[in-house]
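From the pipeline queue, job 12 of 40. The input is one protein chain; the requested action is below.

Action: predict structure.
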Amino acid sequence: MDRWTEIELFVQVAELGSLSRAAAATGLSNAAASRHLAALEQRLSARLVQRNTRHLHLTDVGDAFYRRCKPLLTELRDAESAVNEAALKPTGQLRVMASLSFSMMVIAPLLAEFNALYPELRVEIVTSNHYTDLLENNIDVAIRNREFESESGITVRRLADTQRVLAASPAYLKRFGAPLAPEDLKQHRLLVYTLANHPHEWRFARGDERCTVHVRGVLEANDGQVLRAAAHHDLGILLQPTYIIHDDLVAGRLQRVLAEWQLQPLTINIAYPTRRHLPAKVRCFVDFIVAQFARHEFERCWSA
């Protein structure tokens, strides 16, 4: 660090022609500036500046040294400016991992606005319903439905809670009727999401009542969009987070069943590798998603 201070001071001396003005430009006292200049000359074993009571000028060696130091300092300042600009203006590629359903239902509709805000940032969506290691897979940000991460060095920020509900198409309910109690589900065609915790145990609560129903699916899949499409085609009753089927419920394409019974809600989090200096691209995306969740009141819609 002292070497860079010495060189920066020397360049200022050469350009300003005054040790006191150079000291002020570099934030040093006159005494400290004099010591730095003397230390530089001693280290180089050469007189760089010829000074007397009235004038200060470079020696031939000093002039040659100045011509070499000037571009080096310019490149250093340019490098620092580039880093500062990158910290404020995100560029490059951002890899975002989320389930296929969340990517389709939430992230994709927001990307046009995000791109307009940060046109130099390229977004790559990696869809996965499995909790893969973020660091090993070079993932910048992930949307997940759990409150902790098994990997160390991961920051988790809560976005919203979402209810999990049962629903079926009007045609299915017209044909088979609606279950009146959780146990009635055993007589229905069920669409089961296999990556849920305990996928074949549907646990219900109503006030102080608790009920667990062991289920088997007429269709089982590891992605909610498959089950959603099957429900649209009247195949059976599905259990899914509200964010996946909210629009279907509002439009009447699907109807809730056993609405008075509650299932364990899900917490939606945004996760990213913990770093002392968070990359601008990650910070901007996280802030954008948090703001969009508040703007669209996703939690209110999905928890109603």
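Job complete. The two ends are 59 Å apart (CA to CA).
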